[in-house]
């Protein structure tokens, strides 16, 4: 039986989509073949890498890439993780089905927090929350895709 192929798509492939790819590899590697990409490339977010490491998943070796870096790859599902990616999702991936599962943007939330409570610990809070929300979503894959 072949693995279900999933692309996690976000705006910059720096945080949410990277977390989803990391969780999917760690929790569902036997069932899923996963990749992540962005509409644009923002580079890896160090706080996302740190939040995942705290949960025991190393994403430091993953790289930020765009959908153009994945030519010719066929996916069964494209899962958009932010509104911008959902609105900008390309149709170049053939028969892939699309699901939007929006999550808050940790860097934006951390920037808001920094104005009121400028500590690194406070800035990490949204990363940890979204990390855990993404984990809960990934734990339901692939069953949640068919419902």
Automatic annotation (TrEMBL):
Gene3D superfamilies: 3.40.50.2300. This is Phosphotyrosine protein phosphatase I domain-containing protein. It comes from Megalodesulfovibrio gigas (strain ATCC 19364 / DSM 1382 / NCIMB 9332 / VKM B-1759). Residues 4-144 form the Phosphotyrosine protein phosphatase I domain. It holds the Pfam family LMWPc. GO terms for biological process: response to arsenic-containing substance. Keywords: Arsenical resistance.
């Amino acid at each position: 039986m072949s693995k279900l192929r999933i692309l996690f798509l976000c705006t910059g492939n720096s945080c949410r989509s990277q977390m989803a790819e990391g969780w999917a590899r760690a929790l569902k590697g036997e069932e899923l073949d996963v990749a992540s990409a962005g509409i644009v490339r923002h580079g890896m977010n160090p706080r996302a890498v740190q939040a995942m490491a705290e949960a025991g998943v190393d994403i430091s070796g993953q790289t930020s890439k765009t959908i153009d870096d994945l030519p010719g790859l066929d996916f069964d599902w494209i899962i958009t993780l932010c509104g911008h990616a959902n609105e900008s999702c390309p149709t170049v991936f053939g028969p892939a089905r699309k699901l939007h599962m929006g999550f808050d943007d940790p860097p934006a939330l951390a920037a808001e927090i920094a104005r009121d409570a400028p500590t690194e610990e406070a800035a990490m809070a949204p990363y940890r929350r979204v990390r855990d929300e993404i984990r809960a979503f990934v734990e339901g894959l692939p069953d949640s895709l068919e419902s």
